[in-house]
Design a protein that fits this description.
Blueprint: H1 18-34, E1 39-43, H2 50-62, E2 68-73, H3 76-82, E3 91-95, E4 107-111, H4 122-129, E5 135-141, E6 147-154, E7 157-165, H5 182-185, H6 193-207, H7 214-227, H8 236-239, E8 243-247
Parallel strand pairs: 1-2, 1-4, 2-3, 4-5
Antiparallel strand pairs: 5-6, 6-7, 7-8
């Protein structure tokens, strides 16, 4: 099966995807526990296999020890270079793209991949990666993983949007604008829902200044957003981690 996609820059760092890994364990943990074959794909793991290695370790600890992870890359040089880190059948590296190399995963994580594609290619990629029923977690983050956003996509359609940050480093929610998923980044303009959402988040943050630190400020910000009528999912347990999740149509 010919891989679908293009070779991207492949930049990565240890712990860069820790935030989204923890979210995958939370959001998709029950699906993986119930699966006969709990397979997760790390699509486009990059120049080194560290993110796939970390994903496997985190899911094994948080969800179930027999979770298997397959790192897929279009670049055969990267696939070959990753083989010393493989631990079959729990951790493998193969050549593949949006077609998922013919595999049938429960979950696909694709981070900092579609950011390098044209916006009009996103919908087809979402559809391809969820065609077998997988839940897709797709997004982008900064180089150190301190600021990230992602969408959950099922059957080709996005259901939620999550903002996540290391709160001790968050100066203002406007920072998220630079890391929006490809499907949204060009829509952060007046009149578009994502722009209005970020504006509301910024106003709430500014109004909730507190001497008790950034975590308490973020918790108050999430509560204010909810009190003003926005559907904010989950609750304080996730908010304390620096997350805020909303339905995608918002």
């Amino acid at each position: 099966m010919k891989p679908v996609g293009a070779i991207t820059r492949g930049t990565t760092n240890p712990n860069r995807l820790r935030r989204v890994d923890n979210y995958v364990a939370y959001r998709c943990g029950d699906l993986l526990r119930a699966a006969a074959a709990p397979l997760v794909i790390d699509l486009g793991y990059g120049a080194t296999p560290v993110t796939a290695v970390e994903l496997r370790a985190r899911l094994a600890a948080a969800v179930r020890p027999d979770v298997s992870v397959v790192g897929l890359e279009i670049d055969p040089v990267r696939v070959e270079a990753a083989q010393p880190r493989a631990d079959p059948p729990l951790l493998e590296f193969r050549r593949g793209g949006f077609e998922l190399a013919g595999l049938r995963p429960v979950v696909v994580r694709a981070f900092n991949v579609l950011r390098q594609y044209a916006e009009d290619e996103v919908a087809a990629a979402w559809t391809a990666m969820t065609a077998t029923g997988a839940v897709l977690v797709e997004g982008t983050c900064d180089e150190l993983g301190r600021v990230a956003t992602w969408v959950v996509v099922e059957a080709g359609r996005p259901s939620t949007l999550t903002f996540s940050a290391r709160l001790s480093d968050l100066d203002h929610p406007a920072t998220f604008a630079e890391r929006l998923p490809k499907a949204l980044i060009h829509h952060n303009v007046p009149g578009e829902p994502v722009h209005e959402l970020l504006q509301a988040l910024g106003r709430a943050w500014e109004s909730e200044a507190t001497p008790f630190g950034p975590r308490q400020r973020w918790l108050a910000t999430c509560r204010r957003m909810r009190s003003e009528g926005l559907v904010v999912l989950d609750g304080p347990a996730r908010w304390r981690l620096g997350e805020l999740t909303v339905p995608y149509p918002a």
